[in-house]
Amino acid sequence: MKIKTDFVTNSSSTCFVLMTKGDLTLTKFLKAAGIDKNSPFQDMFKEIFHMFADNLTPAREFTRIHRWSHGRSYEQFIKEVFSENTWRRVQDAEARGMTVYMGDLHSDNGALECALCTDCFVIDNLNLVIDATNDGW
Amino acid sequence: MDIDKIYRYSNGFCEHLKVVHKDITLEKFLSNAGLGDGFGATLFTRLYNSVMSEAENMEDLYERFYKQEYDCFSTFIGSKFAIPDKSLTLLMNGMNESDNFTLIYYDALHYGMTDVDELIYGEDYEEKFTKLFLLSL
Lengths: 137, 137
Description:
The complex is a heterodimer.
Chain A: E1 13-20, H1 26-33, H2 42-53, E2 57-58, H3 59-65, H4 74-82, H5 84-95, E3 99-106, H6 111-117, E4 121-124, E5 128-132
Antiparallel strand pairs in A: 1-3, 1-5, 2-3, 4-5
Helix pairs in contact in A: 4-5
Chain B: E1 8-10, E2 15-21, H1 26-33, H2 39-52, E3 56-57, H3 58-66, H4 73-81, H5 85-95, E4 101-107, H6 116-120, H7 126-133
Antiparallel strand pairs in B: 1-2, 2-4, 3-4
């Protein structure tokens, strides 16, 4: 038996919906986020990009296999885990030919991911939409 | 390596004394970070407001209410916040590095993002955020 003697902390995760017209690229993400090419915080936003880009599952598959699925349909999952607004956003994106993905953010993957995991935000651009309104504690 | 100045002192309970530029505004903060309209500016606006929205300028406070009680600003800060002498000296060195710098007090639990401290004082980005608040990035 192992006995942990230092801090024992709780961790949590939240999920996001990412809708993209064509491939998700760093250039597209930085443009959608409004990051100047000379921004001294380019590295921070590149790290955020990889939080999303390296963590994508097609949305229908995600809602079927995710531990929060509990047998819910695609529509039910998004409406109940996110909101009616998010469902409308997904429907609109699919109607415009965008590909819809979903992924998780974890509070124990470093300060930046923790901050976004506990935050509630939407990146809304013509070719890229990220809905993280499930986030926030 | 010995350091001769610091730009922040925390009592470990989310209360901070922080050296910032006297003329800092949200607009200058975003501009120096290289952020246009979009998610980046929204995130940094929230970071800025988490620090600055309820911050008290300690030099103003001293001039208005404490000047007769304490013979100098440094003594006032050291007494009011029970700062160890060494840390107080380093903090005053940071503030006195430029006539354009001043000292604010804020409590990170009062307003804004829950994980603002971890993000702006985490080892990855602390130096950049320190310079950004000093408008020297």
